[in-house]
Amino acid sequence: MNAAVRAREVLRFDYVSGERDAEAGTSRRRVEPHHVVYRAGRWYLVAWDLERHDWRNYRLDRLSPRVPTGPRFTPRTVPGGNVHDFLAGRFKGSERGDVWPCTGEVVLDLPARSVAPFVHHGTVEPLEGERCRLVVGSWSWVALAASIGRFDADVTQVAPGELAEAFELLSRRFAGATLATRQP
Fold first, then answer.
1. Separation CA 70–CA 1 (nearest Å)
2. pTM
3. Are 8 and 71 in contact (CB under 8 A)?
4. What are the pLDDT digits (tens) for 141-179?
5. Where among 71, 92, 113 does a domain terminate?
């Protein structure tokens, strides 16, 4: 893999996507390999997919190279210019680099010292009266609302409106779940 990256040779491989049956989830790929990167305990190939005309990342443990490699190519610039930010953004569901597609702000009725240890990619600001302002992101508004709900505290301010709508959607879903469990 690294040899194809260094030589700038088109790489052909079979790829198993997901944890499905190897026969059902296998596809053939032809890519321009640009980087091999370690992230969150796994190795990934960051490459330009020649059939899909787009940047993709592939888990190396799901990839079976085919020989021979293809012709040499001129390297492209990874979007944003930084492969680590590009890959981090892809894992966050963002096309704009290492940023969350959905970022919201809430005020929680909890002291900042109780919230801060559990916020890895956001900010916590202490407020008066044992409250705090939390600014955090996620790949969707519903996921963001659900992650804020884990703090088991009243939420007194919400922005933007999309986050408020996600809280409303979750409250209807959870209310429906409690009604379903009460019926004989």
1. 13
2. 0.60
3. no
4. 999 999 999 999 999 999 999 999 999 999 999 988 887
5. 92
